[in-house]
Amino acid sequence: MLTFKQMEALYWIVQLGSFEAAASRLNATQSAVSKRVQELERLFEITVFDRAHRSARLTEKGAEIFEYAKELLERRDQIVERISSKDVLVKQVRIGVTELTALTWLPRFITAIQAEYPRAKVEAEVDLTATLRERLAADTVDLIVVPQTHGAEPFATTHVSEVDNAWMCSPALARNKRSIALADILEFPLILQGSRSGTGYLYMRFLQEQGIGTPRFLASNSLIAQLGLTLSGLGISYLPQACLAHMVARGALSVIRTDPALPPVRYVALHKPSPPQSLVAVIARLAAQTCDFGSNLLDPNRN
User: Fold this and answer.
1) What is the pLDDT of residue 149?
2) Residue 171: is the preceding peptide bond cis (ω within 30°)?
3) What is the distance, to the nearest Å, from the Cα of residue 297 to the centroid of all Cα atoms in its chain?
4) Terminal CA-to-CA distance of the chain, rounded, Å?
5) Does the pLDDT of residue 302 top 60, yes or no?
6) What are phi and psi of 290, to 5 degrees?
7) Which whole number is the average pLDDT over 95-99?
8) Phi, psi of 285, rounded to the nearest 5 degrees
9) What is the pLDDT of residue 88?
10) Starting at the edge strand that comes first in sequence, how are the strands of the sheet with 143-147 ordered?
11) pTM of the predicted model, to two decimals?
12) Cα atoms found within 13 Å of the Cα of residue 297, Cβ hemisphere only
């Protein structure tokens, strides 16, 4: 008899790339996951995985049944969400955010999800924009909150907020400069984010559009590392103004205004297309309602 457990085993082996990872995802033993695949093979008299390879590579028939499994599981989840009350819906919700959200309003966001869906289990991951987009496309996360780097999105898109960034450096490096032409930013050592960062990708493109090359710079994909390097006086970097206002106020950082200024970064919640009242669509709206990039978990004086 065909079961959802067999379908889930196949689905997660393919999505995560191994029996071991699928077993961890399903809170089962590796032998139990293998047994479910074997049951599928006996039921349909097919071979699901090509055992000549060490990785979990599907056979032609395995790929066909995987598509059916994916469709079946998606339909099951839709039915459960539509029929179940929010108070009794038990579902694992996987969200992905970038570092800035994690350092500002992520706890508030998770609290709002749990208030709306008391029995939902929320898993949050922090990663780079490019990685999170890949995870969303592969169905290993349900929703992500990231800078919008594409004009036309293949995902359902909910506007969350905008983040204003400014060039910042240590007061010693600023040398009393407060306002300069954007091109003069090259007088400073630059600390920039890489292209897999949403903000890094957008600002690298902005500098190129302004005719400003960046032949030499120190790259960091970690916002915390970027901030630490800037505070140490190693260079100038673009940093979020609202959540670092306390560091500027106490003189740990100086803001250098440029003409033109850095454009704001638009943040969006992305998920696979779904009905307006689906769980992920509701959570996307909760992201817009709870977003606060002005809060800062690192500020000792925060409320």
Assistant:
1) 94
2) no
3) 19
4) 56
5) no
6) -100, -10
7) 97
8) -70, -35
9) 45
10) 121-126, 92-97, 143-147, 265-271, 156-163
11) 0.76
12) 11
87's tokens:
């108070």
Residue 185 and residue 204: Cα distance in Å, rounded?
13
Q: What is the pLDDT of residues 107-151, one digit of tens each?
A: 999 999 999 888 888 999 999 999 999 999 988 899 999 999 988
Residue carrying structure tokens 């297309």? 273
Residue carrying the six token digits 């056979």 = 59
> What is the chain's mean pLDDT, rounded?
88
Question: Phi and psi for 229 in degrees, rounded to 5?
Answer: -65, -40
Is the Cα dihedral 135, 140, 146, 148 positive or negative? Answer: positive
Interatomic CA distance for residues 61 and 47, integer angstroms: 7
The pLDDT value given to residue 216: 73
Q: Which two tokens stand for residue 174?
A: 């600023």
For the stretch 207-221, pLDDT in tens is: 999 999 876 788 888
Q: How many CB atoms lie within 10 A of CB 213?
A: 8
| Token pair in block for residue 18 | 């191994």
What residue type is assigned to position 79 of the chain?
I
DSSP letter for each residue of the chain: ---HHHHHHHHHHHHHSSHHHHHHHTTS-HHHHHHHHHHHHHHHT---B-TTSSS--B-HHHHHHHHHHHHHHHHHHHHHHHHS-TTT---EEEEEE-HHHHHHTHHHHHHHHHHHSTTPEEEEEE--HHHHHHHHHTTS-SEEEEE---SS-SSEEEEEEEE-EEEEE-HHHHTT--EEEGGGGGGSPBEE--TTSHHHHHHHHHHHHTT---SS-EE-S-HHHHHHHHHTTS-BEEEETTTTHHHHHTTS-EEEEEESPPPPEEEEEEE----TTSHHHHHHHHHHHH--TT--TT-TT--
